[in-house]
Amino acid sequence: MSADHGGSHGHVRVAAVDAGDRTGGWLPDVDARMATFESSLSAILEPSITVIENADRIAVVPDVHYPFHPSTGMVTDPALVGALVSHIERRGDAEIDVVGAGTGIDADRTAAYLGYPAVLERFEATFSGIDDETSRTRVVRSVDDRSVPFAVPTDLLERTVVVVPTLRPTESGAVAGGMRTLAALGDETDDPDATAVAAADIVDPALSILDATTAYGGTPHAANAIFAGPTAPTDAVAASLLGRSIDEEPALSLALEDGARIDVERVGPEARTLDVEAIGDRLSGGELPPDGDMHPVVTAAYRLYAAAGRDAVPPQLEGKGDAD
Amino acid sequence: MNTALLSRLTESDSLAVGVLGAGNIGTVHLKSALVMPGVDVRAVADARSENRARAKRAGVSRTYDDYATLLESEDLDAAVVALPPFLHADAVEQAAAAGIDVFVEKPLARSSAEADRMLEAATDAGIAVGVDHTLRYQPDVVGVKEAYEDGRVGHVPYASITRLNDGALGRPPATDSPPEWPLDADAAGGGSLLELGIHCFDVLEWLFGDLEVESAAIGETLELPVEDAATVLLRAPETETTITLHCGSYQWEQLPEVNTRLRLEGVTGTIANEEYLPENFYASAAKSAIGNVAGRVTGDDPDVFGPTFYLRAHYDALAAFFDAIRNDERPPVDGRDGKRTLELAEAAYECAKPTGSNDLEATEVTL
């Protein structure tokens, strides 16, 4: 598989996750899930292992934006993060933090619900939620000839970063990806595409590992694969798997040079049987479920009806501006 | 109901009502009461300013930021208690002290012991206590009850009920922080079993009479402080029916569909609530809306919340409570019913407790 954007070359590795015992596509036991990542992690980390071995301090940044069940594919599986931390600990003596930010919810609370404390207590790693109290450094990058600020958590500037997004779309339809996972560590922005590019440039992750063990593309899909590579090319592969044109993904268009070419290399023990195209076929065009909020026209029509029919307007039909 | 209150009710055409708590379900009760004939909503209390503002937009003239002040300040016949469960006991006790009947959102209390305390205060003060167990007001559940009472499938050896939704944690794209109290056992009294299972217990005893809990299992799909799934095996001695109950707050809910399934497996066939649900919710809503608009011409009372199907049950439950207190009758779902559901939930929690090794006595071998 290759995603052709012409120009420079991006290289992404993909490995199959051992799905042998995943009855129903999911293993509830976190230790059992961690064990399934052993060979695939070794295979995709191999080119980056020197960087990891030589690092003094490492930050692993998963998608913990909300406490969705990991079997939905809407967040990174904590078991993958645990397996990654285990792998890093075996290969070096870096101090490891798992760092994440929530969307509207306290990240430490999300991490607790997702089971991060229990996973990380197996190792010498801790979870650090990013919040308003986090020390930040404002850095400005030029993106598409614009100055784009990003309030990066200061500690990340001093760490080797591995970002671990999950394979899912965002509410806007764009791919979530590593760039946006990093951007979520900063402040809210009116320009999420340029901010995502700036965030990835400033944090400069050593590696992006895309969790496609369970992906979300309209419904969950046990794709049983993990991808790894530089952040923007790995996001480009994610976009391709979700059926998004790279040219129509503003953040990717900004991050990748015109004509960039991204190759995907199958690695690991199951490389020959790994069907990446089938994953793309299954997920292509997938979006988040409808948000449940009524269209403003519907809420206006209901109010009109309620007045004419002497009915009450339920809170769900009041419209966003009126609800609590 | 005390004599003073009876006197007040008979002197007035309308019930004077206060609404304590105007979050989501409190607003449903508020809006029901606002359009209910013979009901005068005097005031609303809510700690959140945005909820008070919404109540004012709905047509309430006076709002308070705490329910105690409302109860002290207003001359009420009844109060709707739609506060988080940890405030139910205090609100009911304060209402009792003021001689105000109460309609309490489920669960009535966090435990049967707390319910006992509330009901004792209510009895001492002579106030009525109603509980918002709405499932038995839903048309689909009413349809099952009527078919069962009709004997349509003969003896029912087995029944099952399932109620699932997404609880305090939302579905994508969830952006708001979930409230803390539903995930706090001290504040809510429990998890799914008290949030959803309690409705199921109420319906099952309404259908089959007294229930006995045979066994139960509870669990969490995430690392939550309360259970988000529970399965209970029940026995109804009167009807000799074995029943399974499953409730969970782990499933994304896609309105207008609501995942409540009730099936009675009888000797000659099955009664299922799905038979009594609209085939198409949108067509059903349109039909109800047209009927309400036409009713303005014909003079018929509107079918309040009719187009929403499920919310109508809340209106009917509240209206039935108000009718009962107007007529000095026992509320159709009263405090004893609410307490009974808590007793069943507690029995299920007890059954679900793991039997650890500490419970086992060491085997002694004497040679």
UniProtKB/TrEMBL annotation, chain A:
<feature type="domain" description="DUF362">
    <location>
        <begin position="58"/>
        <end position="238"/>
    </location>
</feature>
<dbReference type="InterPro" id="IPR007160">
    <property type="entry name" value="DUF362"/>
</dbReference>
<protein>
    <submittedName>
        <fullName>DUF362 domain-containing protein</fullName>
    </submittedName>
</protein>
<dbReference type="Pfam" id="PF04015">
    <property type="entry name" value="DUF362"/>
</dbReference>
UniProtKB/TrEMBL annotation, chain B:
<feature type="domain" description="Gfo/Idh/MocA-like oxidoreductase N-terminal">
    <location>
        <begin position="16"/>
        <end position="133"/>
    </location>
</feature>
<dbReference type="Pfam" id="PF22725">
    <property type="entry name" value="GFO_IDH_MocA_C3"/>
</dbReference>
<dbReference type="GO" id="GO:0000166">
    <property type="term" value="F:nucleotide binding"/>
</dbReference>
<dbReference type="Pfam" id="PF01408">
    <property type="entry name" value="GFO_IDH_MocA"/>
</dbReference>
<dbReference type="InterPro" id="IPR000683">
    <property type="entry name" value="Gfo/Idh/MocA-like_OxRdtase_N"/>
</dbReference>
<dbReference type="InterPro" id="IPR055170">
    <property type="entry name" value="GFO_IDH_MocA-like_dom"/>
</dbReference>
<protein>
    <submittedName>
        <fullName>Gfo/Idh/MocA family oxidoreductase</fullName>
    </submittedName>
</protein>
<feature type="domain" description="GFO/IDH/MocA-like oxidoreductase">
    <location>
        <begin position="144"/>
        <end position="271"/>
    </location>
</feature>
<dbReference type="InterPro" id="IPR050463">
    <property type="entry name" value="Gfo/Idh/MocA_oxidrdct_glycsds"/>
</dbReference>
<dbReference type="InterPro" id="IPR036291">
    <property type="entry name" value="NAD(P)-bd_dom_sf"/>
</dbReference>
<dbReference type="GO" id="GO:0016491">
    <property type="term" value="F:oxidoreductase activity"/>
</dbReference>
<keyword id="KW-0560">Oxidoreductase</keyword>
